Each structure stands twice: as C-alpha cells, then as structure tokens.
Amino acid sequence: MTGALSADGLAIRTGEPGTRPRVLFVSHTGTMSGAELVLRDAVRPWTGSTAFLFEDGALADVLRGAGLTIRLARRGSGLSGLRRDASVLRALPKLGRLAGLALEIARAARACDVVYANSQKAFLLAAIPARLVGRPILWHLHDILDGAHFGRAQRIVQARLANLCAARVVVPSRAAADAFIKVGGSASRVSVVPNGLDLDLDPRSPAALRAELGLPAGPLIGVFSRLAPWKGQDVVIEALARIPDLRGIVVGTALFGEDAYAARLRTLAAELGVADRVLFLGQRSDVPRLMQAVDAVVHPSVDPEPFGRTLVEAMLAGVPVIATDAGASAEILDGGAAGTLVPPRRPDRLAAALAAVLADPDAFAERTRLARDRARTRYGAAGMQQALATLILETVARA
Ligand code: UDP
Ligand code: GLC
Would the CB of 283 count as within 6 Å of ligand 1? Predict the structure, then answer.
C-alpha cells in the first residue's frame, strides 16, 4: 500500500497514542469483502483501538496485524449467516443469543469513547447498547437501502434506528446517501466518504502478464467480484456468447453462501456453448495484475451498487471499464466520461459496448486516462482515512 499521506501524518491528526479517542470497531462478519477491505484501510490511524467481531476469520487476522485489540463475541458465531432481510420470525430463535451479544457489545463500548459499526448487522446490534452506555455511535453504511436490496419494513427500521441512535451515518456514494434519505433517514446525519484505495501496479506489459498468469492471447475481458446474483456475472457470460472468439475471466467466489448461483454460472456457460471461453479463476489475491492483463473490465451489477471498489481498481489499472448504470457507477465514472455505462440486465447492450472497446481500443484511450486521473485524485486511501478520522474525532468532540 502506498499513500499520499503517511500513517504518521494520520497519527498526528488523530492524536498521539494514549491521547487519541479509543474507538470500538464492530463487524458482524469475519470474511473479507469490500466493506471489510475498507475497514482494513480505515483503521490504520487507530492502532491501540479495539475491534469487536461477531466471528473469527480473516478480518480478525488483518485487524490484529494493524495493531488493534480483537474481542471476539462469545455468542456471535453463526449470526453472519442470518439473512440481512430476515423476518422477525426467522430471527426469533436466536433472540436470546442476540440479547447476550448486545450485552457483550455494551460492555466493550463502555471501555471506549466511540463505537464505529461497519455493517448493517453490526449497527442493528450495537446501536441501542452504545446509547445505553452513553457512547456515540457512527454507522458506516456500505449498503444501498433501496427495494432491490431490502424489504420495506427493514429499510424503515434501519432509517428510524439511525435517526434515533446514530451520531453520524457514513456512506460511500451519493447514491447510497439518496437511498437512505428517501426511506426517511435524516439528511443532516449523512456524510459521503467515497471509498479510497491504492494499487500496486505491475510495470510489465499485458502480454507479459498474461504469459506469467497463464492467460490466453487474443481478446480477453474480466469480471472481478464475489459471485452473487445481484453482481450480474451471468449477464457477462450471455454477452460474451454473442461475440465470437472473445474470452473472459470470472474472478471471485461465492463469499456469502451463493453457491447455487456459482454453479448456475458454469451451467450457463456450458448451455451457451462457451464453457471453453469462460475461465473461472476463483478467489484471487492478485486482482490488480489480472486487471492489467485484460482488454476491458466489466462491472455488471444488476441491482444498484453502493460503491464498487472493483470499478476504482480497474480505473487505476488503466483498463477500459464498462459498468452498468445502477447505483454509484455513474458518479464514479463521471457520468460515462471515464468509462462506458450500459443499462443493467442487458446482455445485448453490454455486448455492443464490449465490441466497440475491443474493435478500437485507441478510441477509448482518453477515457481510460481520465479514469486513472480521477481515481488517483478522488479515490485514494489516504483521503478516505483522513475523512473518516475527522468524522470520528468530530463525533467524539460533540458527544
Ligand atoms: N476481490 C479480491 N479477490 C477476488 C475478487 C474480488 O480481492 O477474487 C476484491 C476486489 O478487488 C475488491 C473487493 O474484493 O477490492 C470487492 O469489493 P467491491 O466493493 O467491489 O464489492 P463487494 O464484494 O464488497 O460488494
Ligand atoms: C459493499 C458494497 C460495495 C462497496 C463496499 C465497500 O460490499 O456492496 O459496493 O464498494 O461495500 O463500501
């Protein structure tokens, strides 16, 4: 990781160890998806703080490595499997454990100055305990509270609870802020802090990278997201089937139990006769290199994307990006000036956009340059860390 602002610079701005506020970071999952990668980078200035995690896993290791004290919930394991739009009836058998967990969070919160909930479930469980022990709570809401992702009752409960308990609600995009406000969330509490990240890029040519990675020559596209129905990898396979000789890599795995969808993608490729042209690479730790090796990156989410780190990664990698116009994609890609926007669930439109990029890559060079500059100036890790640190400090000061 490289950052324009050093960790020392951030340490000074958040106060010296011992004088800076003690933050309790709360997460319901131990699995690393985008929200947890953001948390990994956000905690950098907060060494010596504590993370309360519902379950053990990769996130615990990463946060421990960042100098945080880890408290693992005694009653948390398995709760991340509770569907986020589960009805009260489904949650009922777990109520005893949820109450126990809330008590554990209250105790941990009392030892800190501010609570930072990094997920919807973390906020739902920590909001009332934090307020009961008199600690302000900040909710980093990585979701879009709209009808595609949540039932109406769920959305309203979340917005009301936020209005009642959250000192601040942080969202990664204007699209996520608008959805929160539309369902009744208080506009004055919302702060948009775009996700920020830095990439270590490989200086080698795409051809050299392909040779090293064992990827084929010829037209090659990539899709880089966990496998889930709303991420829309099936639409890419359908689009690819419309372009002879085009190959695609599908990077990522089903992180949250979407195994049936993962299996369906393989069946779909076989049914469309393109099984030999779609390479499933599984979960990878070398996404930037893979992105640099392909001719175009597709971000095909069929439901509104709250942010989409992979979009920014592709922009930084200097590869043409084609994204569905749903959620934050348009604001990240400057309304299409820094990439190509296509309607969601339209393999025909996606295929046409892909064909255009592959036929004349030079025509897209200016957009790709603009995308890289935009990602570097607006979506860097240091900017995000500083903006989040400022909000945490303001929240403590107001309390
Ligand atoms: N990612 C990864 N390996 C994979 C697939 C994805 O490291 O095989 C990373 C990807 O580079 C990105 C993150 O997972 O940084 C996904 O974040 P995003 O915000 O795009 O989506 P989310 O999965 O959180 O909805
Ligand atoms: C969530 C969203 C994704 C976002 C990430 C980090 O996982 O689905 O769009 O980039 O959180 O905020």
Answer: yes
